[in-house]
Amino acid sequence: MANDDNYPVESDRRRFVKGVVGGAALSGVLTTGAVSVTSLTTPSGGGGGTMNYRGANRDLGPAPRSIPQIPIELDDDGNIMGLWPEPETREEGGVEFLVSEREFEVDGETVTYSTEWFQYCGLQTFQGIEPDADQDAYFRYDDAPPTNDYPWMENIIGGSQMNVDDFDQYEDWGNDIGDAGIGQPATGTWRSEDLPPEQTIPIFVMRSALIEELAEEDEWIAQTCPEGLIAFVGKCTHFCCVPNYKQLGESANFGAENKIYCQCHQSVYDPLNIVEEQFVSLPRPEDG
Question: Which residue in 112, 162, 198, 229 has the fewest CB atoms around it within 10 Å?
């Protein structure tokens, strides 16, 4: 029988979600057109609806789509930030709400980056995801960095800001998983300072010579990945687990030793293959 649902045979989870949560009915909703979907997912709280976004390609497993990329900016000291444009007021359905967007010109076309890319997996309820939240845009290291998997982080102070100079091993870094020289990784948090743990937004960051090479030909990468840095929200688009990179030897069983791997249901994402997709962003809850 053809593996037409893209589950890895080794996972023994093939064809699991086809009957879950009314999959056929949901599929019907998602194919009724952008107007209908938007009307179903845009409440008085603001935001939501279909949109194009860019992320790490989903190569394998039950995840429905790619993990959203976070465009990066560097301050004058080389500290790393996730782009968070100034919020502006938008009106939809007679209701005003805030959005945070920026337009990029890529290959003669306009690509709209919106912080609504991250309104999934419940993140739309997080305080830090609100356009005008007090949290800044700096990437920070985990309070307990994964030094067993990434020995270079053993001297990192948890909660400190990430800096491009921290990734000085990026051209040849490696551990016992996969190939060396793919990129130097780190895990951290974004827009989560001074918030409770359940409000923490996890992120994955990598600096890679391969990203630098891609930036020479790809205008999107050139504008969003300075100094070979690339970042993603650390939430699998399947069941919202936190995936990893070069942290589990079992990832090799699914061809993921050099890719982002979610151990819960074996979804695999390629951080070096950024694709454009469309998804239904969930609306933020109403204030009050």
Answer: 198
- Per-residue b or e along 254-281, where b marks 16 or more CB atoms closer than 10 Å to that residue's CB: bebbbbbbbbebbbbbbbbebeebebbb
Structural domain contains residue 1:
no
What's the whole-model pTM score? Answer: 0.83
Element (H, E) at 92: strand 88-92
Q: pLDDT tens digits, residue range 104-123?
A: 999 999 999 999 999 999 99
Q: Containing domain of residue 86, as a range?
A: 17-281
CB burial of residue 10 (10 Å; 0-12, 13-18, 19+): exposed
Gap between the Cα atoms of 270 and 67, Å rounded = 9
**pLDDT tens for residues 16-46?**
333 233 322 222 233 223 333 333 334 434 6
- Flag whether 4 is in a domain: no
**Contact call for residues 39 and 33 (beta carbons, < 8 A):** no
Spatial contact of 281 and 30, defined as CB atoms under 8 Å apart = no
Question: How many CB atoms are closer than 10 A to CB 83?
Answer: 17
Residue 100, domain member (yes or no): yes
| Alpha carbon separation from 124 to 25, 71, 138 (Å, rounded) | 24, 18, 19
Split into its structural domains, the chain has a count of 1
